[in-house]
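User: Batch of two.

Assistant: Item 1 of 2:
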Amino acid sequence: MKVTPLLFSATLAALALPSGASASQAALRWFASQGYVGPEGTRIVACHGYGCSRRQVLTVDGAWLSRASAFLKAGRTSPEAERGALARVVSTYTTYLTTVIGGRPDIPGSPAQMSGVHGQMDCLDETANTTSLLLVLQERGLLTHHKVEQPESRGFFLDGRYPHFSAVIMEKTSGREWAVDPWRKAPGQRPEILPLVKWRQDS
């Protein structure tokens, strides 16, 4: 496993994240069930290569969190506004991952011929990376209207659909769940954020 620590550029001490103990336990259990590593403190283990066959350690710094915080604070007016802000945050994160991990920019939809290629991400990689980011934001108190849930899947071959995974958030007041799915999008593009019920119906 190739692991390269990275510091963005700012001092971490002032913005050290609280313990993962208060993060969404179901989401953290999902990481363990997949054999992946969930976020801890300022540390995220980003997945790539399909099925998290390649991993890269990222250390989130104050400058990036401040930028994400500004987006999310502007979206505190409503759950819909917060989801819009999250889409913007995730899009900047996918751009960052491409820059840090290197290699050819991730091709949307995980073409089979790119399996194992450095920097390429299938839906499991995208789900792990997005869920890690969402948990970091939640631990910083940056999510007002939503909380992070366990990732969900759809499709199982017998129903004619290829298995697919997505990160999930739940709207606190209504209990409505939303998929946060950048899999079909190129780095830097806004992810799909749509009701989980509708996401489950898609092919």
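Item 2 of 2:
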Amino acid sequence: MQLEEIKSLFLKHKETNLYHRYITNKHIEPLLNNLGDSVEVKTVGESVLNNPIYALKIGEGHKRVLMWSQMHGNESTTTKALFDLLNTFLGSSDLEHVLKACTLYIMPILNPDGAQAYTRINANEVDLNRDAQNLTQPESKVLRAAFELFKPHFCYNLHGQRTIFGAGQANKSATVSFLAPAQDEPCTITPNRKVAMEIIAVMNDALQNVIPGQVGVYDDSFNLNCVGDTFQAENVPTILFEAGHYENDYEREVTRELIYISYVTSLHYIANHDVTGDKYEAYLKIPENQKCFYDVIIRNAKVPGYLNKKINDIAIQFQERLVDKKIEFIPKIEKIENLKDFYAHKEINANGLGVLDVDNEVVKVNYENVFVIINNEKIALLSK
């Protein structure tokens, strides 16, 4: 499919009832009720707090794709894009070939308690992505049961990543990232990893036309407690999707479209090809993510008392907080030092002047506010 065709489908079928970062069962349940008879919707389990875990099945093809989102409750961008994809399946014939070739089993919110509290962990304070072996949590058992019952040929492990990542050590934000997880300690490039790598390479090719230089891959260090590594180790090609930051897109609405493009591109490829893994090598050229970004850096600031220097840089990271069922971003000073090896999504030059807090005192690490004062002027840290 052509990129412009996919973008047009997104605009036409975007689910307008899902927006911003806070997505819970309450938001998706009305949508599930309106999907119609062509989508099989079931409650397949319950969370720690007895919230339902839903699963959807659509398609009639022999190629089986298992997709799960919000394993980490505060990573919702991939969930929004799933409903955009479902709307496209139901409202257009353009992806009919995918449903004829594939059957999709989708778990839109695996961790409903974490989604409701807007936390990474579940209600027992367990990271479900470190529970693949012990299966101590009800949500982990639900996913494992789905894997064993559905017997997928491909797994899509859908996540979101922080704004701290660059695509390589460069001034390019990792807006979308992928990984073909390792399945053993030596990180052997096995046949099923090659299949996952080939599919990622296809998605990367499409995304480079929209966000050149802003696609990364994660370090493939092996951890069998992670779900992706476990499923890969059981010889099912598994792909980690990470929805990251695009310029001024803290709502993750631009990234949502990029994830949609990735879904459609990859499913179209799977539907139309016998994916052998022979074309995996392009994956190896994608830069590895580096932790080299802050949300804001104030350069050339006069901050006495730090590292025995008069001039430093000030690194600010936004804290995501759930307030009255909405996500607010609170700027917090993380470091005051020389940050020449780091980049920022927004830079402010203090030109050697002092940087003060709301009480006209010199700022310190852990200071939180939406502005600072430079040369008697309030400077907003959050972009409008």
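The longest helix spans residues 253-272.
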